[in-house]
């Protein structure tokens, strides 16, 4: 153990002196997370702006009354309704005085009750935003509900109901206005919000670069002759390899922990229990480190190792949702679920939702299973690097 600690400490000190370790492990990902925070940080803080509706509705028409009542009951959205004529309503939109014009033709209720087609005109302004889309959706919903009342009354007539009963049914269905409430929501359990998912994905992506400074460093030491001198000492070769793996583990755990911490501050993310997060970080670092043993056996030079590492890191990182969420079903979905970066993000989502260690057993099993498979493959692939 003393020899192992000595080798690990000496190698770790050497890696920390290399500025590229700090650049790829912390500086670049922190800069990228900061940029992503500026771009996506306010996406989920959507605030609906006040909106003005120019409404032209016929007097004493039930449908018009229902529409006006619905607009006034939209909680979380400030809607001002200006009752004007049809021509004036369109003119207010053209002049920028209203965001949306709603023109209800006269006799529309009678037309619908008689089974005749009727059209409600909606004209949106040039500066229409999501608020207008919401109002248009509400208007369509009210029209569909009113038409449902007409259909219900027609069905009642087929059943032989009296005129009074039909009128009552029609009024009850049509007057049951739907009130739209706009409230601030939270991501469901076991799912990270946009900012937290970006932080987790970026941490997983750059982890695949960070751990390479330990294990893949053997190729550099072979080129410099340091590895040959180590093989000539009484120290067992297995301890040398293990010390490289420990360096990768230490660098990966520290870098990932820092990225999650800083990312949580920038995005206001909550990843849940620190204990669960620590276990997930350790598991994903083990999975990432195990992949380096395959690379170090396949690559003849450090340049080849860096190329293969970059391809695998970007591929696994992107598939794991480092830049945007990816979902699939069937066989492709199963393959994506076996990605350690995706499992890491999924585990953090479970922890965010209040899950404990028992709840993250699935993602942990995926990451550790990935590590076992990579370590087994590293024993059977050709050792082109000549360092293991």
From TrEMBL:
<dbReference type="InterPro" id="IPR047817">
    <property type="entry name" value="ABC2_TM_bact-type"/>
</dbReference>
<feature type="transmembrane region" description="Helical">
    <location>
        <begin position="196"/>
        <end position="219"/>
    </location>
</feature>
<feature type="transmembrane region" description="Helical">
    <location>
        <begin position="239"/>
        <end position="269"/>
    </location>
</feature>
<protein>
    <submittedName>
        <fullName>ABC transporter permease</fullName>
    </submittedName>
</protein>
<dbReference type="InterPro" id="IPR051449">
    <property type="entry name" value="ABC-2_transporter_component"/>
</dbReference>
<dbReference type="InterPro" id="IPR013525">
    <property type="entry name" value="ABC2_TM"/>
</dbReference>
<feature type="transmembrane region" description="Helical">
    <location>
        <begin position="311"/>
        <end position="336"/>
    </location>
</feature>
<feature type="transmembrane region" description="Helical">
    <location>
        <begin position="21"/>
        <end position="40"/>
    </location>
</feature>
<keyword id="KW-0472">Membrane</keyword>
<keyword id="KW-1133">Transmembrane helix</keyword>
<dbReference type="Pfam" id="PF12698">
    <property type="entry name" value="ABC2_membrane_3"/>
</dbReference>
<keyword id="KW-0813">Transport</keyword>
<keyword id="KW-0812">Transmembrane</keyword>
<feature type="transmembrane region" description="Helical">
    <location>
        <begin position="275"/>
        <end position="299"/>
    </location>
</feature>
<keyword id="KW-1003">Cell membrane</keyword>
<feature type="transmembrane region" description="Helical">
    <location>
        <begin position="356"/>
        <end position="378"/>
    </location>
</feature>
<feature type="domain" description="ABC transmembrane type-2">
    <location>
        <begin position="159"/>
        <end position="385"/>
    </location>
</feature>
<comment type="similarity">
    <text>Belongs to the ABC-2 integral membrane protein family.</text>
</comment>
């Amino acid at each position: 153990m003393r020899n192992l600690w000595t080798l690990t400490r000496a190698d770790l000190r050497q890696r920390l002196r290399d500025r590229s370790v700090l650049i790829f492990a912390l500086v670049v990902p922190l800069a990228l997370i900061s940029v992503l925070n500026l771009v996506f940080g306010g996406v989920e803080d959507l605030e609906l702006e006040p909106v003005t509706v120019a409404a032209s509705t016929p007097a004493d028409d039930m449908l018009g009354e229902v529409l006006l009542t619905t607009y006034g009951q939209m909680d979380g959205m400030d809607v001002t309704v200006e009752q004007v004529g049809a021509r004036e309503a369109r003119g207010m939109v053209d002049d920028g005085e209203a965001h949306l014009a709603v023109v209800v033709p006269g006799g529309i209720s009678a037309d619908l009750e008689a089974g005749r087609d009727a059209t409600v005109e909606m004209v949106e302004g040039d500066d229409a935003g999501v608020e207008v889309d919401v109002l248009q959706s509400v208007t369509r919903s009210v029209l569909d509900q009113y038409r449902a009342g007409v259909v219900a009354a027609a069905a009642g007539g087929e059943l032989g109901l009296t005129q009074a009963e039909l009128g009552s049914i029609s009024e009850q269905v049509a007057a049951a206005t739907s009130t739209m409430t706009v409230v601030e929501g939270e991501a469901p359990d076991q799912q990270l919000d946009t900012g937290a998912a970006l932080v987790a994905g970026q941490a997983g992506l750059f982890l695949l670069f960070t751990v390479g400074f330990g294990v893949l460093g053997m190729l550099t030491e072979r080129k410099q002759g340091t590895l040959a001198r180590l093989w000539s000492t009484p120290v067992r070769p297995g301890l040398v390899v293990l010390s490289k793996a420990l360096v990768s583990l230490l660098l990966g755990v520290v870098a990932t922990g820092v990225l999650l911490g800083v990312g949580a501050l920038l995005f206001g993310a909550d990843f849940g229990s620190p204990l669960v997060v620590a276990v997930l970080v350790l598991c994903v670092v083990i999975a990432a480190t195990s992949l380096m043993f395959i690379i170090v056996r396949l690559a003849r030079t450090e340049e080849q190792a860096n190329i293969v590492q970059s391809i695998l890191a970007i591929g696994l990182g992107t598939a794991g949702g480092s830049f945007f969420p990816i979902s699939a079903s069937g066989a492709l979905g199963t393959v994506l679920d076996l990605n350690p970066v995706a499992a890491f993000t999924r585990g953090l989502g479970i922890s965010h939702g209040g899950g404990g260690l028992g709840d993250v057993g699935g993602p942990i099993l995926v990451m550790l299973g990935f590590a076992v498979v990579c370590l087994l493959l590293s024993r059977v692939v050709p050792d082109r690097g000549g360092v293991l």
